[in-house]
Amino acid sequence: MNKQLQYGGLLAVGMAGIAGGFSVGGLLKRLRRPTPNQILNQVKRAFLKEAPIEGSWIEMKKSPLQKFALRTDVYYGGITRYEDGQLVQYEFLADANTGSILDIYRL
């Protein structure tokens, strides 16, 4: 009976360790910031659903942005494509910490 108690305790400790590992892994995944290329690829995938792309770019250096009381770092980027035979340019701003697209506008 004593051995069963030892194995039960060992099993409980092992399961707790595995659960803790998954929790830490999930936290680290959320804390990892997207690279500029990952953000650009996300925007390109969205634009490619509508039409082919002629060109794309993104600044590799973060820029500070303040809108009212909110401050964050952003990446600026752009997409060029043909629409109705005309070359059209779009520019976007993406949050450098989350990768969320904050704004996309046609130039």
List keywords for this structure.
about 110 residues; alpha+beta; Nuclear Transport Factor 2, Chain: A; 5-stranded antiparallel sheet; 5 strands; about 40% helix; PepSY domain-containing protein; transmembrane helix; membrane
What does this structure look like?
It contains two helices and five strands. The longest helix has 30 residues, at 2-31. Strands 1, 2, 3, 4 and 5 form a five-stranded antiparallel beta sheet that branches. Helix content is 40%, strand content 36%. With 107 residues, the protein is α+β, with helices and mostly antiparallel strands. The chain has helices spanning 2-31, 36-48, and strands at 55-58, 63-67, 70-83, 86-95, 101-106. It folds into two domains: 1-32; 34-107, Roll (Nuclear Transport Factor 2, Chain: A). β3 and β4 (86-95) form a beta hairpin. The N and C termini lie far apart (76 Å).
